């Protein structure tokens, strides 16, 4: 253990710095002579050779800081292994820099896309340890990802804010929560915010069920309703389409996002006034919450232990309250989705929350 | 002082309940036999005769509650004095209910539109005391309105959240802040959030100045920039148009709001990636902040004193730290705008913040 | 399922109302005719016959409200089964009211003391379902209790606030965190707040180890240090005493709490200025955080399912992410403590955090 | 304008960095060659010659950071002009360093004590501009000081947290708020937190009035009461003592602070259970709130303008919403206290809040 490269890739989120601090503090504690390099702006830095020598003090005071002190960028590959716009072989470039810099290990923090590339690098001979970063909580092999709980807090706060307005004006409010493919964030924020209707990508909705739920509430004398809708919510109709057909249909959609379509349908079918709020990028920003800070610190410390023991090729996950190494090959390419039959869904459904199905 | 009607009108905001609590507690303290009625859902309740007898305990525990416990609705008049869709004379209906209910005074909480109607009722012989409610801070006759500081906090928090993402990804971020006609909220949130560029309705912008400011930042090695843009921000070009021309132009605009247009222009002219966040209705929701609670409590208490002294026809404002009665006739129909020559603007400009002018 | 009594007992905490809402909404959903009674101020209400009929609307809007809408009071027994100060047999009184009110089930929310009495009532023939409430997270049979995460947030926020002052002044700061017997809250807040030293009841400390850790930090050029100290932190010396000896020694202690003693020792041994902050009761107050709201909603919904299935004599716990019924007899009288050998402790220790051992 | 020294002195508070950022950004904007030095740890740094050259990037990203990036320490003089423990003439040492470093101006951020020394330095020939820093809001010549509103938020939050517990248990709760000599913080937090009784240093209390107010609440069926008590609250009895007598009496007091004494008296006289919470140093920590960030930015920018115009010997205050220069000689040695006859007190009193008088 001599030279370690840190790399953060994909959309930023709240607890990246806290996680890197956990890794770094443990490494320095084990060996004060360890050299840590920040590879700048994600895989770009590894491809084009941009890095920065980090010092112990760089990791002081960052436990509570959002974002990433070493920058990030999108996944480098749309198609795995493709060259860049100038024909550069990006995979080779990464392997070359890894060797040139004499790195003993790459510590890579990222989401699903990031893990595919990390697995590739591992297969090509790099020592790699990864950490599960995403507000979407959709990484296979861990019960929970860092960033998720902080994002739940922000999305819930958005619903809380909307609540008072909805109640005062007697309206239907839609809060659109991040999550194109998976609904964890919408599910948790929806429950925490007391949403009456929760629409997830994993449970296609029937607009008539949604309308019925709204009318039931009106009949009970309730003046307002709140919907938590995932960006990737999808109607049963659309779910039946092929990928191509759906893409074509969406392209023609007159609305900036699915929430607006749902809103228009509700307004038309119920006559109730509908308002839409999109907290958007706010959900991945700001301070990590205490839950994430503890999670990140533990995951980071456990990642450092793997490095110290020279156990490479793993992501560190949190399973049943314990940090565990999960082989990268098992993580890459899988998505952890909400199971419509999970007990959490059943419990909430039996409280009267509508999932539109 | 026997029978007092409370009425909240217009868009809700954070400290309406705290204000009504201030009025009610002071009235009950002065005379435990006072009868307070909540007129439901704004002027609608006064027009169509919906009210609710309030009890002292209704005003307990609401100091920290957002929204309004008596509901609200839009201003009843687009054109002052017009009848409703069934031909009902709304003004007469309000005066009739005022008499029928034997009210001694109406306490009306609302913004600019609300004050026009309040003034009309006052001129027609109703005893009226009003309170300046709006997140826009644009009511004439008071230094500050309740709701404003709470909204500043939320809009600032949105910028804070965006900050970490902007810094991590090296992007231009636009946060669109509420305010169609006035820029107080954008100005304060922009300063508090450390925005690099602030665009207000009162200071028409030149997109080239904005671009120049962004390029200057890039030249200084800064990887990201943040713009706080009011909903009602307007380019110099557009500001030169007649109302009609502008309306026509806006109708054809391909973007959901001005921020998207500005974003597209920046992206085109600088090649930098731009992201837009619209906290929207969140800005008027949630708990009132301590500043607003103190302000509301004081304004409410002072309004009660006017009622006790049977001094009607006034809005209670806060001027230089003191509660003052302002004649309704002076308030109605005026707008308190940001003066482009105000010292706050000069101070900030000389720090290097760009206003696009 | 006809008549259900709700009862909250022991110190209040943040998510009691959210939990009761989960139970009530599910019960009403299953059977709109169910009668729910709030038994007032904990077991007192059951002993002395005070209750209130609840309506569905009582459970609306309380998801985010701290405290308990039906009041609470201390455990009724210091010695299980003892009579009250007037000689009243409290156990009999509770059983009598249970019968008199024709209750089908008691839903009891409380901590360890509460569970002993709940188990007693169950053994005496009452139908009982319980829910694990405590900021201490020390209830056996569940991975997590509601209230805990909200309290972690507040205690962490206290450390965050202190951080800036400690850094500005270059001082040693002690934040005393709630927890007389168990250290979960201190452990999590300490990690989340970035404390340098964490002292728990389960890991007796040697003041010399603490001092050594502080001196090591000074030697590294760090100007300040932060200690998270549990109310029940105990020195190795004191841990070796008998209960009686310890009580006698503590009685003579010149300090209001252990933190002050530790502070005085540090000041004497290192010459550094020490400040102590005690957030105290704040830790159990305020809004439940989104994590707790989801947890509470799920636990409450699962408790209702047990009642619907007439499965009595259980506490609902959360184990590995699933709600599970745990026999009351297994829960009562046990304490879930921090295991000094747990991986969380090892992970943090290897980051260089000192536990004083 | 060439070489400027920044110095923060006295207890830290939330918006020191934001203020320095305002000064620095404006100075750099006016003249990119200006040299700014951070004089370390308050006047100590000026006395003993410790400073650090600052760069523009040091002032980036600190708008939201609590504490002070250049450190602080207590006022250097108990008696103005006294030498240090080694006989060093501290005044001379400061003047010598000022000359040796060829400073063109000192920018000093501090409270009342700090201003006495700043005035002394100004009288001795240094160019000085100061800024009003304190959570106490007791500096003469400005309507408001930075730090105050952030501290109000924290103290109010403490009361909010306590509220739910007080309501659940039916107890009397005392929240002790910072402020030895002045009550602004207690007054504002007390109003914002909905305290029933507010005790300030400026309005000596009669414990019997306090008890009467509590009993009145009990008689009205209210189960709990909350007192906001300033650290420096004083009974009428004690207020009548000479300084010496009071000091002697306080020394013998069995309680750690006045709140505990008041609590014991209430418990004895009413039989109600009393709990006390002391948020303490938390009140000066953490992030500055948006209000303070705007205030600090404006004050800082205005201070820079004075320097640019070589207008020395002033504190920058905020008066009726405008930044104004106030001669140091007018500021030094004065205290801005709460006037018991101020309209804010009258307004609140007539709502039924008890001030104990």
Automatic annotation (TrEMBL), chains A, B, C, D:
Instruction: Kindly give the InterPro entries that the UniProt entry links to this protein.
Output: ATP_PFK, ATP_PFK_prok-type, Phosphofructokinase_CS, Phosphofructokinase_dom, Phosphofructokinase_III, PKF_sf
Protein residues bound to Mg(2+): 112
Query: Which cofactors?
Result: Mg(2+)
Record bears the keyword ATP-binding: yes
Keywords of this protein's UniProt record, alphabetized? Answer: ATP-binding, Cytoplasm, Glycolysis, Kinase, Magnesium, Metal-binding, Nucleotide-binding, Transferase
- Which Gene3D superfamilies is this protein grouped with? 3.40.50.450, Phosphofructokinase domain
Instruction: Spell out the residues of the site Important for substrate specificity.
Output: 113
Q: Where does substrate bind?
A: 134-136, 171, 178-180, 231, 275, 281-284
Phosphofructokinase domain boundaries: 3-307
Tell me which residues bind ATP. Answer: 11, 74-75, 111-114
EC number, as in UniProt: 2.7.1.11
- Give the pathway annotation: Carbohydrate degradation; glycolysis; D-glyceraldehyde 3-phosphate and glycerone phosphate from D-glucose: step 3/4
State where the protein is found: Cytoplasm
Q: Which SUPFAM superfamilies match?
A: Phosphofructokinase
Q: Which reaction does it catalyse?
A: beta-D-fructose 6-phosphate + ATP = beta-D-fructose 1,6-bisphosphate + ADP + H(+)
Q: Where is the active site?
A: 136 (proton acceptor)
Q: Do you know which NCBIfam families this protein is assigned to?
A: PRK03202.1
Function, as annotated, reads: Catalyzes the phosphorylation of D-fructose 6-phosphate to fructose 1,6-bisphosphate by ATP, the first committing step of glycolysis.
HAMAP family, per this entry? Phosphofructokinase_III
Q: What is stated as this protein's family in its record? A: Belongs to the phosphofructokinase type A (PFKA) family. Mixed-substrate PFK group III subfamily.
Q: How does it assemble?
A: Homodimer or homotetramer.
**Any idea what this protein is called?**
ATP-dependent 6-phosphofructokinase
């Amino acid at each position: 253990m001599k030279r370690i490269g840190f790399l953060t890739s994909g959309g930023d989120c709240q607890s990246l710095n806290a996680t890197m601090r956990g890794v770094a503090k443990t490494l320095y504690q084990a060996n004060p002579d360890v050299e840590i390099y920040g590879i700048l702006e994600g895989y770009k830095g590894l491809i084009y050779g941009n890095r920065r020598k980090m010092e112990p003090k760089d990791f002081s005071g960052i436990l509570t800081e959002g974002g990433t002190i070493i920058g990030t960028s999108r996944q480098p590959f749309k198609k795995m292994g493709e060259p860049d716009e100038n024909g550069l072989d990006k995979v080779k470039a990464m392997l070359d820099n890894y060797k040139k810099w004499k790195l003993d290990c790459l510590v890579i923090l990222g989401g699903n896309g990031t893990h595919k590339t990390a697995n590739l690098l591992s297969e090509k001979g790099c020592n790699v340890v990864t950490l599960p970063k995403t507000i979407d909580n959709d990484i296979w092999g861990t019960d929970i990802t860092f960033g998720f709980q902080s994002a739940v807090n922000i999305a819930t706060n958005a619903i809380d804010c909307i609540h008072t307005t909805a109640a005062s004006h007697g309206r239907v409010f839609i809060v659109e929560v991040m999550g194109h493919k998976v609904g964890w964030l919408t599910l948790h924020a929806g429950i925490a915010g007391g949403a009456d209707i929760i629409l997830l990508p994993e449970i296609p909705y029937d607009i008539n069920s949604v309308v019925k739920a709204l009318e039931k509430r009106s009949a009970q004398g309730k003046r307002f309703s709140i919907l938590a809708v995932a960006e990737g919510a999808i109607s049963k109709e659309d779910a039946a389409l092929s990928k191509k057909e759906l893409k074509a249909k969406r392209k023609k959609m007159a609305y900036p996002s699915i929430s607006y379509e749902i809103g228009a349908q509700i307004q038309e079918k119920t006559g109730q006034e509908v308002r839409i709020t999109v907290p958007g990028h706010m959900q991945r920003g700001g301070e990590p919450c205490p839950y994430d800070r503890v999670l990140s610190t533990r995951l980071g410390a456990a990642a450092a232990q793997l490095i110290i023991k020279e156990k490479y090729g793993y992501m560190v996950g949190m399973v049943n309250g314990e940090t565990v190494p999960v082989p990268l090959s098992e993580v890459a390419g899988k998505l952890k989705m909400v199971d419509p039959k999970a007990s959490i869904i059943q419990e909430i459904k039996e409280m009267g929350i509508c999932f539109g199905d």
